[in-house]
Each structure stands twice: as structure tokens, then as C-alpha cells.
Write a structure and sequence with these properties.
It is built from 2 helices and 27 strands. With 334 residues, it is mainly beta. The chain has one domain: 6 Propeller (Neuraminidase), CATH 2.120.10.30.
Length: 334
């Protein structure tokens, strides 16, 4: 009997002093509207961990699994509810020889092409935007140069329903503080038409990063992760061209939950709300740029995406973790 009592007491004490590795984080509710998007009982849970820097999550509806990258480890992972974590592709990026262009050799942002269901990958290590053939693992180059000069290291991408590509190109994948091998004298946001023509959306951002489109595809959002921490918005016409550059939200001085984290990847839900990684975690905005609240993970957050059977799981890549939280909305296309 005494042994049973001691066992019972040890379990109770453990529950107080040992952290739950599967659930963590804080949901900050700054505007009552956030409660319509994130229920009071919502919990942020860890579904995978142990990475150097997790990035680029995308949900594969035709298969029911999540893909994401560990960029420094040059590995693309697959996660599903049924099988858990598996290696999907290694090397995911650079694999050509003994003189890599930088330390971040893997792929970064991923997206599923809405017309072909192929995976579009920002191949950080090889400095190209590619289509990945998952049957024979070959890559078809979408863009590798602008005006004859090599791209820096494509970071994040999106494709609209007509097949127009948009991607960001900061130099994070290159070597050293001077970004050895950099050929472009700027960090650009680019547009590639369905027939392969590449043009510049803007070169005025210091470090363009996350990118997304509104549900009607008439607004393009771009994050800037260094210097000014902010998101820009652009109008998009029927031919995919952009105009009317404006600030969507400036988070440079936002330190309500701590200053950690830059403006990185983002996701847009079916109603046009932005779920954007920024200072303090995932910041939730209305389409008009009103900040409703944030999901704080306690560590640097790189990106997020919607997925799951009904599209109402928000997956978050946060440094060495991949997390999930159930929300009361869903991503575009679900």
C-alpha cells in the first residue's frame, strides 16, 4: 500500500515539475475577433522535433501529409498522422560537389502548383526555383537568373490559379556576411509568367521573405525580415502584374510579446485573414491589416500553413519544432 501511495505522489509531483513536451505556447487575444478564429480550448502541440531549422511547410491534400524542410540538414521531411515523421528527400537541395555556395544547402519554401499538383520548391542550396518530379526526383528549373545574373537564394514562393509564380530572393543561402557569390546587387521579389518570362515586382526590400496571395488572388503579400520588419501588399491584375505597393503592417517596433523573430513565412485563410510569422510568434491579421492576436511559441518561428483533413489545422515550423493548432477557419482551397 505504501508503495502505491509513493507512486501516486510521484506522478502528481511529476505533473507539476516536468514540462509537457507535446503542448506549449501562449495564445494572445488582443481583439475579441480572435476568439472566432481560435477557440478558447485550442492547444498548440508539438508533432515533431529535433531539427536545426524547420521551414517551408506545405500540406499535400492528395495523400494527406505535411512536407517541410530542415534547411541546414538538407532534408525534406514528411509527416502524417498515421506514420509520424519520415525522410522524404535527402539531399533536398545542393548535391553537386565539394564547394557549396553556403551553409543553408537545403530547400526552403514549398508550394503545390494548383494546375499540375507538382511541388514548387525554393531550392536554397542551388539558387533556383524548381518543379520537383516526385516520381523520379528530377527538378525542372522555373527560374535561376534575372537579366543574366544568378539569383541569390529563392526563399518562399506561391503560384496563382493561372500559373503565375511569385517568389522572394534574399541572400540567406550564400556564404559569409558579404554573401560570397552574390551577383545581383539587390534582394528581389520576382514574378514568372506561365510561359517563363521573369520580371521584378520590387527590389526595395532589404530581406524579402514570406509571400502569399489573397483568396481572390488580387492582393500579393510580401514579408521583410530584416531592417524594417513589415509586410507589403500589392494589387495584382488579371495578367499577374503588380502595382500599388503599400505597407500592410509595420512590426518594426512591435515588442508586445518580446522582440524575437522577424517577418518570415505566412498563410492566408479562406476569408482573407493573414497568419504571418513575426515578432513574438504567428501574428493574426484581418485582410484590412488589424492585428487580432498572436500565437507565441517561445522560440523563433519561420513559417506556417493550413492543412489536415478539413484544412483547419495550422502547422507551424518553429526552429527545432513543428507544431499544430486547431483553428476555426481553413486555408484557401479546402
Amino acid at each position: 500500500m505504501n508503495n502505491l501511495i509513493l507512486l501516486f505522489l510521484s506522478i502528481i509531483l511529476a505533473s507539476f515539475f516536468l514540462p509537457d513536451k507535446k503542448q506549449f505556447g501562449i495564445i494572445h487575444r488582443d481583439d475579441p475577433q480572435i476568439n472566432k478564429l481560435i477557440g478558447e480550448d485550442a492547444v498548440l502541440e508539438v508533432i515533431a522535433e529535433g531539427f536545426d531549422w524547420s521551414e517551408g511547410p506545405v500540406w499535400i491534400k492528395d495523400g494527406g501529409y505535411l512536407l517541410f524542410n530542415d534547411i541546414p540538414q538538407n532534408t525534406m521531411y514528411k509527416w502524417s498522422e498515421q506514420k509520424g515523421l519520415e525522410i522524404y528527400l535527402r539531399p533536398a537541395g545542393y548535391a553537386l560537389g565539394d564547394s557549396p555556395p553556403g551553409r543553408e544547402l537545403g530547400c526552403n519554401g514549398l508550394f503545390v502548383h494548383p494546375k499540375t499538383n507538382q511541388i514548387v520548391a525554393c531550392d536554397h542550396g542551388n539558387r533556383v526555383l524548381v518543379l520537383l518530379n516526385t516520381i523520379n526526383w528530377t527538378k525542372s528549373i522555373i527560374a535561376d537568373r534575372f537579366e543574366g545574373k544568378k539569383l541569390n537564394s529563392p526563399n518562399d514562393c506561391i503560384v496563382n490559379s493561372k500559373g503565375h509564380y511569385y517568389f522572394t530572393d534574399p541572400p540567406y543561402g550564400l556564404t559569409g556576411p558579404d554573401y560570397q557569390g552574390k551577383e545581383l546587387d539587390f534582394s528581389g521579389v520576382f514574378h514568372v509568367t506561365p510561359n517563363g518570362n521573369i520580371s521584378l515586382v520590387t527590389k526595395e526590400l532589404n530581406r524579402p521573405n514570406g509571400i502569399g496571395l489573397s483568396p481572390d488572388e488580387k492582393t500579393l503579400y510580401v514579408a521583410n525580415s530584416e531592417g524594417k520588419k513589415l509586410w507589403l501588399a500589392f494589387d495584382v491584375d488579371d495578367d499577374g502584374n503588380t502595382s500599388n505597393r503599400r505597407v500592410f503592417f509595420d512590426a518594426t517596433d512591435f515588442n508586445k510579446y518580446g522582440r524575437g523573430g522577424g517577418c518570415d513565412g505566412l498563410a492566408v485563410d479562406k476569408d482573407g485573414n493573414l497568419w504571418a510569422t513575426g515578432p513574438g510568434g504567428v501574428m493574426v491579421f484581418t485582410a484590412q491589416g488589424r492585428h487580432l492576436g498572436s500565437i507565441e511559441t517561445g522560440t523563433a518561428v519561420s513559417n506556417c500553413c493550413f492543412g489536415g483533413e478539413s484544412g483547419n489545422d495550422l502547422f507551424i515550423t518553429a526552429d527545432n519544432y513543428v507544431c499544430r493548432i486547431k483553428v476555426n477557419t481553413c486555408g484557401i482551397g479546402f
